[in-house]
Amino acid sequence: MSYRGLLDKYGTLLDLPSHTRPVSLLEGNTPLIPAEALSRHLGGGFELLVKFEGLNPTGSFKDRGMTAAVSEALGRGAKTVICASTGNTAASAAAYAARAGLKSIVLIPEGKVAAGKLAGAIAYGAQVIQIDGSFDDALTLVVEISNKTPICLVNSINPYRIEGQKTGAFEICDTLGSAPDWLCLPVGNAGNITAYWAGFRQYNALKASGLPQVLGVQAAGAAPLVLGHPVEKPETVATAIRIGKPARGEQAIEAAEQSGGRIIAVSDDEIISMQKLLATLEGIWVEPASAAGLAGLAHEIAAGTFQPGGKRIVAICTGHGLKDPDIVIKDLAKPRIVAPNMDALMEVLSA
Ligand code: AN7
To answer: How confident is the prediction along the chain (351 residues), in pLDDT tens digits per residue?
Structure first.
């Protein structure tokens, strides 16, 4: 049977109201790619798999939750959806709203949204509003407006976003036959870690698929869950997770604790190094935030606080590198310009 999207495949496992009217871009079904070279680079002796969520229709994991949230909103008769976003949620909300024939409004923090995300939101026809403030300021505003008007909130505070996002865990168990030993992933507003943990628990209750230990990773300049308090002015090169007051922070800590895992922070340098390693060793180009989970794993292995030997580890790589080309181009020496003849080319190649 041909693939018809996540609600078609996993809908019976998702707690969605009966009025839900499926809106799908055939999201999900993303590959779990073996990362043998990276595993060797990190010392070897363990199995490492990358769930490449950048291969979703709008280039990020957000499409899993968005198909559910927009399907529910449409079925309920909503006319407009709204979200605050560091970029990926905005692009995803805009695309699914377009497909559903709904209007979308997205609030983004001024100047800190990667080009590929902003362009996406505009291309899909969203009304894009920049807030002279942080993601957290924008989230406060959209929560208030959705409480006062019929505009439907599609941030991950919306429970249907979590329902749809659980499918990532289902897919991993279906592909591997059981849950991995460890799951590592970036943590921003903490919807994803919350959903994975809920998904793994649900599948384990149904199919005895086991539970992973969860390593959640924040950027050091935006690490409220590691510090134990909100961060007023979060800063990180990984703009997707530049969030100081995660909406589902408590659930993220619960997921880490209940699973026997933890939430840690890594530096921007560690994030960017891992982004490069993953691209150059494995051919998998992810945006900086998406490399945070693996950067956390590398950090722990190097520090001797994590023994990977014999383990099966899945890293969730949440968004595609194409979302944020500037970050790579910025640090790049401009490609050399060479005369269009063989001699000139050979000279460069033999240098
Ligand atoms: C690539 O788009 O919050 O912990 O507004 O884009 O579930 O928030 C994005 C978050 C990780 C963190 N990786 O996930 C938004 C937004 C990427 C992301 C996260 C985000 P959550």
So the answer is: 689 999 999 999 999 999 999 999 999 999 999 999 999 999 999 999 999 999 999 999 999 999 999 999 999 999 999 999 999 999 999 999 999 999 999 999 998 899 999 999 999 999 999 999 999 999 999 999 999 999 999 999 999 999 999 999 999 999 999 999 999 999 999 999 999 999 999 999 999 999 999 999 999 999 999 999 999 999 999 999 999 999 999 999 999 999 999 999 999 999 999 999 999 999 999 999 999 999 999 999 999 999 999 999 999 999 999 999 988 888 777 888 999 999 999 999 998
Instruction: Output DSSP code: residue 334.
Output: P
- DSSP E strands in the chain: the ranges are 32-34, 47-52, 80-84, 103-109, 127-131, 152-153, 182-186, 213-219, 262-266, 312-317
Q: Which of 168, 65, 60 is nearest to 114 (CA)?
A: 60
**Domain boundaries defined on the chain:** 6-59+161-329, 62-160
The pick from 51, 56, 62, 225 for probing ligand 1's pocket by mutation, whose C-beta has the most ligand atoms within 8 angstroms, reads: 62
What is the whole-number distance in angstroms between the Cα of residue 178 and the centre of ligand 1?
26
Q: What is the pTM of this model?
A: 0.97
Same topology for domains 6-59+161-329 and 62-160, yes or no? yes
**CATH code at 6-59+161-329:** 3.40.50.1100
> For domain 62-160, is the CATH number 3.40.50.1100?
yes
